[in-house]
Amino acid sequence: MKDLFSKIYRDKGPLGKWADQAEGYFVFPKLEGQISNRMKFQGREVITWSINDYLGLANHPEVRKADEEAVKKWGSAYPMGARMMSGHTELHEQLQNELADFVSKEAAYVLNFGYQGILSTIDALVGKNDVIVYDVDAHACIIDGVRLHLGKRFTYKHNDLDSIELNLARAEKIAEQTGGGVLFISEGVFGMRGEQGKLKEIVELKKKYNFRLLVDDAHGFGTLGKTGAGAGEEQGVQDQIDVYFATFAKSMASTGAFIAADKEIIDYLKYNLRSQMFAKSLQMSLVEGALKRLELLRRSTEFKDKLWDNVNALQNGLKENGFDIGTTTSCVTPVYLKGSIPEAMALVKDLRENHGIFCSIVVYPVIPKGLILLRMIPTATHTMEDIDLTLKAFSAIRERLENGTYKKLSQSLMENMGE
To answer: What is the pTM of this model?
Structure first.
């Protein structure tokens, strides 16, 4: 019999094995200062492209005032207890009603966290006789929700309609045998590649297959659609999304999430979501803060419009300079380069130390070996100067990557960081 921890001592995992070289700089970095387009990293000012404050609401004066007044009024504890027991309030209901109206659904239910909320939603919607069909590139929270499922589940190739239909047919056949149903899961926007899920094409398949559609629209809510109601609104199919999910952690610059659907579905979920039944209610200060943020979203599209001015300037500038940004159809801006993990580390160090640019680095196993992904999140607070400086910096680091500079630097960089 082995010691349970023996595998931990032997194998730190594909990312953990780099911890000695990377922690504190490449992973678990410490950004300091107010959330903004420019912050401090290790004492230096950097242009930040890794903050999910899409609409720039984190430090909007009205938001800061609402947050401050809410904390003074309620503290950080109220209400105590789960929603079903002692944590339910009129303001929770008000927020739910306003969210439902904003995303054109009959009802909504506020969740304390996005990750556990979507995980628990999946768990509540399916039983052992049901079948799940989901995108192979789904976010970890969806994957973890699917892992709880005791029945069959199939992945389809990312946004591939032929693969979608093939797996829907497989799922329907099994569901007919078990007497269950089919849950189809897509993201409104895939947060790594920036591509929108093919929601319009997926709902069209409802004419041929019998399934219900759950959409995780964490990156689409507030950024897409005429009013900002998300990817479903953008693609004209919001009314055909059976269960809509979004988080407050992106456009709303806060904590929490919500699901929206027909009232009967929401009534069922709020009595069966284990992550909400057995966990503390969302604090009142966050509820009041969310109401203010939603008010600003509904009042005007100025934040979304400014965001897209910056998105278009950044993405067009990258393409004009010959960078590969994939097939993004959202604000998420991936920049793909070729190189090893050590080269990626040298490249990012150069970006931060010599060019004052801070963006997320993504390497294997999140993406295939030999690729480096620099994931950029434009916000409404970025300026054209930020974009111009970033484009120049990216051109410089690409040249150094291609001429082998980072390959030479990577070995000494790893040795120095390991000391």
So the answer is: 0.93
